[in-house]
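Progress report, Aim 2. The chain analyzed during this reporting quarter is listed below.
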Amino acid sequence: MATKTKSEGGLVESIKTLVYALLIAGVFRTLFFQPFWIPSGSMKDTLLIGDFLFVNKMAYGYSQYSCPFGLCPFSGRILFSEPERGDVVVFRHPVNGADFIKRLVGLPGDTIQMRKGVLYLNGAEVPQTPDGVFTEVFDRQGPQGTLPRCENGPVGQGADCTKSRALETLPDGRQHAILNIDQNGFGDNTPVFTVPPGHYFFMGDNRDNSQDSRFAQAVGGVGFVPADHLIGRADRIMFSSAGRSLLFFWTWRFDRFFKAIE
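Predicted structure tokens for the chain:
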């Protein structure tokens, strides 16, 4: 009987240890970091399909947190700091709740407009400097097997798929790369948007391949994103794979491991 009791006690301790470990992992994920895989090409070439990163949930105010598994009695929002224009941010879509990742372009009170593919912020042109060409293979990418869009298209499978690349410089001097596919496409010319209080305006770096704040929520776009829908800031790529499966080690992009996101 003593042996059985000792065995049962060991099992109980093991279960308690597992529960505590899951609780700690859940709290860590809920409060601090959230893993995120890049599923689409809307942020090329800053982020590629198959990039894996951790979202810094400590970066902003209004970060949602809740007790994992319902095992502790707290939930709500913690205030840290405000988002900055140019940050790459993961947020919840205001309509369907899906996680999106885009670049923060407009702060509350800003006016935003696109004219012939050029961003105007508060009435002033945001400078673009040509920076060569982004080239990738025209082939199916990632687990979803999506094909990239090409400025030089149509091209055959296995051919070079190119997009014009430029460096965009925001008013505070921060620079990031943007890509162009279409000339005067639908998202290249917009009305003037005024960002409401408590909301933000997001755009993808792959400007002609992004359903972002330029597009109304009624047609599948993001529209204005409320502050409490922000999840966190993407700071660094931890791992990257160009293949259809994580196990295809020959498709790993070693040059993107631990790469800072600009």
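The chain has one helix and 17 strands. The domain at 32-260 is CATH 2.10.109.10 (Umud Fragment, subunit A). These observations will guide the mutagenesis work planned for the next reporting period.
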